[in-house]
C-alpha cells in the first residue's frame, strides 16, 4: 500500500481541521491539494525511479507537497532549508533530481544557474483542482518513499532510505503505544524534515487528529500559549526543548488542562529535567523515547507509569520492534554489563543510498547496530550510556559524558551542559564541560568543586568553559563535534 493512501485512508473526506498554521485547513481541502499536485507529477511522467527535493519550513505547503510526492511513488527528499549549496548539490547530483518544491521566500538562496523544474506555492495555486482520487496500486511495500540525509562518520552525508512499509509499520506502532485518536491535537515545533517531526505528522493524520504548527520556538512563551489557546493534547521535543522551557519560560506557573501527554526523544535527557517535568506537569503522561533516522523514527519508549521507578531508562522496544544490548561476541549482556544496542523490526531502513559499505557496517545479522552503548536492568529495561564515538577514554578509564552532565545539571545556575573529551598529552583525553548559565554570577571553579564532591576524581572535568548558547543543529541536538573543535 502506498504510504499516502494509508495515511489518508479514513480522513481524506473529513471537513474537520487538519492543520492550524497561518490559517486552518481541513482534511478535505488538504487532500484535494495533494491529489492535484500528484496529478501534475504523474502527467510529467515521474515515477518510483525519480526523486524530488522538498525545501520548506513547517507549513501547509510542506505537508501537501510531501504527501503528493510520496503518493505518486516518487521518492521525497525533504531537507533543511538552511542546508549549504554544496549539500544540496551533492543530493541533486547523487539522485539525479530534476524537480524541486521550495517555498517562494527561500528561492533567493538557490543558484540561478541550476537547470531544474522549480515549484513554489504560487505554482501550486495555479494548478487546476483535481477532485478524482487516484489510488496508486503500483507501489510495493519495499519501494523507497523517503530519503533523509544525515551527517555521519564519512565526509559525505548519508541518505537513509525509508520504504512505504517502514513508514506504515512505524506509524502503526507509535499510534498504538501513545493511544492516539481523532481527538488528539499536537503542537509541532520540531522540523518536518527531521524524522521525529514527520512522525508527528504521520501519526496524527492517520488517526484523523490535528496539528498546530509553531515555527517560533525562539519565543518559548508562544509555545505555552498555543497549547492552551488551541487545546492541544500533545507536545513533543528533544532535550534542549524541555530544558529551555523549564529554565527560561513560565511553564512552572501555568496549568495545561487539555494536555494529555508529552514525548521526548532526540537524545538522552538528564534525570534532573525529567524529574522537573514530572513535578511541573502533574497528571500529564510523560513518554521518554529513543529512536534513530535509520529506524524510521522510533525504536523504544518507557511507559509513563514507570517513569520514577526506571528513571533514565529508554524502556523497551515499541510494539513489533525488538531491542537488545549485545556484547562484542554478539551475546545479550547481563544486568549492569555494557554492550551495543541493536534493533530488529519492520521499521529498520532499507539501507544508505548508494553506500553499500556504510550499510554493511550497521545492518548485520538481521539487526540494526545503533552505535549506542547501553546496559540493561534485571527487568530488561535499557539504559543508554553514550554513543560509542563519544565515550571519553582518559588514563585507561572509559567515561560516559552523560554521567558528568547529569551531575552538573543538578546545579540551579546551569541552563545547559555538554561534556566532551579533549586531547591530553598524558591521559589521552581529558574531560571538558561546556555550560550555559542563568546569569554570570557562577564561577567555573564552583562547578569543578561541585563535581569533586559527587564524582570519582577521574570523571571530574579538567576544564569548564562558559558559552552563551550551545551549538545546535536545526533539530535542537547539540553539535558535539563543534565543541570538540573549539580552541
Automatic annotation (TrEMBL):
Gene3D superfamilies: 3.30.300.30, N-terminal domain of ligase-like
Keyword Plastid: no
Domain AMP-binding enzyme C-terminal: 403-477
Domain AMP-dependent synthetase/ligase: 12-353
Alphabetic keyword roster: Ligase
Enzyme Commission no: 6.2.1.3
GO MF, one annotated term: long-chain fatty acid-CoA ligase activity
Enzyme category, top tier: ligase
InterPro entries: AMP-bd_C (IPR025110), AMP-bd_C_sf (IPR045851), AMP-dep_synth/lig_dom (IPR000873), ANL_N_sf (IPR042099), ATP-dep_AMP-bd_enzyme (IPR050237)
Lineage top rank: taxon: Bacteria
Name of the protein this chain belongs to: Long-chain-fatty-acid--CoA ligase
UniProt source species: Clostridium liquoris
